């Protein structure tokens, strides 16, 4: 029996999702009621058990496979039935299809036996309607009694199951009588009615281009195909606007940073998702100062929940609408700028400019560097993307004290200031010069304060602590500076060399912390593990700045990991060395699928093709520098037009289908 108050493990579970509904089950399809298994809907567990039995015994699972977005097929055998030979002659195919607010299953019992088969199939159901934060913390949950057969109700949520079998209070029963070599299909489904859910599925979800890709490295094609299925299943809506829920199961809701990064990564497939994400977050942009929630005027929120949540033994208590993030605000500005460059309609961009000015106002409120500190004492201690409590550490393992100024956040701030200035200039709004001056001054301060000497040479510190001391651990954070413009060419080279060292790049991707730092642990959340989105962001920066071999090493790590995880990249995985393991080790509580992990496949494709558009200026730059061999993608989107891109084995790029208003350079 798992210990209480320990986060349940996820890595062996099978996830089937159509946001905001998810099923987490055992490998055979059983929802046994243990740990985090269950049918979840919008931060509540609708069913805690859906256990299929044949004559009171569990079938023996032999495998499962994805069956498209929101669908999984499970195969098991019933060896005590049928012909008494070594081969199984009775099998069960359990096809699960998840739709927003519902789950339906077809259970096909097939006999190849040379004798008739008679059995009783039952499905036992149980409901607890436990909040997600209670399940995540390993807390105890009790079962609800049905208010009528196969109906449960609590907290405004109604769960209703039905099927074509015989109904009792919490069970469906099917008598099965098969002739020689026969089959029968049994059906059941469950619906969740939750009018107070804080997230909803889109009635008309935004679609993005699904390019037809061929590549010398076939792993890229397979990873992209599975990732696009997963991304489709993570779509949520707010009004008419679509965005991506962050990940299953813990984060299937609006997350500022995650939703922004995922939309930014998907820009080669169209700007509609970016536009929806921008508007959803703009509607919730901060307007007042509130220490408990972290809200401030102009600030972009961190996460949205059904109710206040508690974590880590109640040490952390977050309000339902929480703003404890230091990077979502500049990233929001850069998402709008990049979407504009990819061809987001000018009138949609113009409508968001007041929110740009508010975001820049929040940015300008930081005196020297953009820092964070949890003023409430009950929020997140760390508020960058590495937001675990032990993520910001010195090389000797000591924890940094706030207020903390993360290195990558200064890069985001620099880029957002320049991006904001470009937007203001283009739409004849004042203030552009102020933000260019802000960026120049920030770059000077960064150059004077952040650089340290370590075992891997000279590189930027992870952060400055509350006393202004450089937090000198060597981490992946510095890779996010590439492509922001904050670094000089010489500084970019130093960063690329540090990133390419075996201490950071010796695993299946980019480690979050160097193996030579005292805090390194390959299965820690942020101090040595590998995150797919982090690796993708850094390889994109390396590729954009011309460090192709270093980028290719990281891309190969992601593709190898994708293959190892059945082409569904998890949120994170172990940072063990490739010389010690032939495949990456799972991080046991990682979300899967995760929006920005799935979007990493699009980043690899984009970096390989090297397409950098500036639609307002009428030009597209082609600069492929990620040596992955020949790659072709038919059906990308630039300025609303469908385009085809090809990079041959020599690295020569071509782009066809562009509107006549655009030229390539």
From TrEMBL:
<dbReference type="Pfam" id="PF14742">
    <property type="entry name" value="GDE_N_bis"/>
</dbReference>
<dbReference type="InterPro" id="IPR054491">
    <property type="entry name" value="MGH1-like_GH"/>
</dbReference>
<protein>
    <submittedName>
        <fullName>Amylo-alpha-1,6-glucosidase</fullName>
    </submittedName>
</protein>
<dbReference type="InterPro" id="IPR012341">
    <property type="entry name" value="6hp_glycosidase-like_sf"/>
</dbReference>
<dbReference type="Pfam" id="PF22422">
    <property type="entry name" value="MGH1-like_GH"/>
</dbReference>
<feature type="domain" description="Putative glycogen debranching enzyme N-terminal">
    <location>
        <begin position="19"/>
        <end position="193"/>
    </location>
</feature>
<dbReference type="InterPro" id="IPR032856">
    <property type="entry name" value="GDE_N_bis"/>
</dbReference>
<feature type="domain" description="Mannosylglycerate hydrolase MGH1-like glycoside hydrolase">
    <location>
        <begin position="404"/>
        <end position="560"/>
    </location>
</feature>
<dbReference type="InterPro" id="IPR008928">
    <property type="entry name" value="6-hairpin_glycosidase_sf"/>
</dbReference>
<dbReference type="GO" id="GO:0005975">
    <property type="term" value="P:carbohydrate metabolic process"/>
</dbReference>
């Amino acid at each position: 029996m798992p210990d209480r108050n320990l986060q349940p493990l996820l890595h062996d579970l099978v996830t089937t999702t159509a946001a905001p509904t998810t099923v987490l089950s055992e490998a055979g399809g059983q929802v046994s009621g243990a740990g985090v298994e269950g049918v979840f809907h919008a931060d509540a567990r609708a069913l805690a058990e859906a256990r299929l039995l044949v004559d009171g015994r569990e079938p023996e699972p032999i495998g499962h496979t994805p069956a498209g977005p929101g669908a999984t097929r499970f195969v098991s055998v019933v060896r005590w039935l049928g012909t008494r030979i070594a081969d199984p002659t009775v099998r069960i195919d359990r096809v699960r299809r998840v739709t927003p607010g519902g789950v339906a299953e077809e259970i096909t019992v097939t006999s190849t036996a040379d004798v008739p088969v008679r059995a009783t199939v039952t499905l036992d159901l149980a409901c607890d309607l436990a909040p997600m934060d209670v399940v995540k913390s390993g807390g105890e949950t009790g079962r609800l009694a049905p208010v009528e057969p196969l109906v449960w109700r609590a907290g405004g949520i109604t769960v209703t199951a039905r099927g074509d079998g015989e109904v009792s209070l919490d069970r469906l029963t099917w008598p099965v009588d098969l002739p020689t070599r026969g089959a029968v299909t049994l059906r059941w489904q469950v619906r969740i009615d939750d009018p107070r859910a804080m997230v909803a599925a889109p009635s008309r979800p935004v679609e993005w281009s699904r390019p037809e890709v061929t590549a010398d490295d076939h792993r890229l094609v397979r990873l992209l195909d599975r990732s696009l299925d997963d991304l489709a299943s993570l779509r949520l809506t707010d009004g008419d606007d679509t965005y991506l829920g962050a990940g299953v199961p813990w984060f299937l809701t609006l997350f500022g940073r995650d939703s922004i990064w995922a939309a930014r990564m998907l820009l080669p497939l169209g700007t509609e998702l970016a536009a929806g994400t921008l508007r959803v977050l703009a509607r919730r942009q901060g307007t007042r100062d509130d220490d408990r929630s972290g809200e401030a005027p102009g600030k972009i929120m961190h996460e949205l929940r059904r109710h206040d949540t508690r974590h880590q033994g109640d040490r952390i208590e977050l309000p339902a609408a929480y703003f404890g993030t230091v990077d979502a605000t500049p990233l929001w500005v850069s998402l709008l700028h990049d979407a504009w460059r990819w061809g987001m309609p000018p009138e949609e961009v113009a409508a968001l400019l007041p929110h740009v000015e508010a975001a820049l106002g929040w940015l300008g409120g930081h005196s020297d560097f953009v820092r964070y500190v949890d003023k409430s004492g009950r929020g997140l201690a760390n508020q960058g993307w590495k937001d675990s409590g032990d993520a910001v550490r010195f090389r000797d393992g000591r924890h940094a004290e706030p207020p903390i100024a993360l290195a990558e956040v200064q890069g985001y701030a620099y880029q957002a200031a320049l991006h904001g200035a470009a937007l203001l200039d283009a739409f004849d709004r004042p203030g552009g010069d102020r933000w260019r001056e802000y960026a120049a001054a920030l770059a000077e301060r960064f150059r004077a304060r952040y650089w340290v000497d370590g075992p891997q040479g000279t590189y930027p510190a992870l952060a400055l602590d509350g006393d202004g001391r450089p937090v000198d651990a060597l981490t992946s954070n510095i890779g996010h500076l590439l492509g922001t413009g904050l670094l000089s060419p010489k500084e970019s080279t130093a960063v690329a060399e540090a990133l390419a060292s075996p201490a950071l790049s010796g695993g299946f991707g980019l480690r979050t912390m160097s193996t030579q730092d005292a805090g390194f642990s390959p299965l820690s959340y942020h101090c040595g593990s590998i995150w797919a989105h982090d690796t993708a962001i850094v390889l994109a920066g390396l590729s954009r700045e011309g460090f192709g071999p270093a980028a290719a090493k990281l891309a190969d790590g992601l593709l190898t990991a994708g293959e190892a995880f059945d082409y569904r990249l998890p949120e994170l995985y172990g940072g063990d060395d490739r010389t010690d393991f032939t495949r990456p080790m799972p991080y046991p509580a990682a979300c899967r699928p995760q929006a920005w992990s799935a979007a990493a496949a699009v980043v690899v494709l984009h970096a390989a093709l090297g397409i950098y558009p500036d639609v307002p200026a009428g030009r597209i730059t082609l600069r492929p520098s990620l040596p992955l061999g020949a790659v072709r993608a038919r059906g990308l989107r630039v300025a609303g037009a469908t385009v085809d891109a090809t990079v041959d084995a020599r690295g020569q790029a071509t782009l066809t289908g562009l509107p006549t208003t655009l030229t390539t350079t």
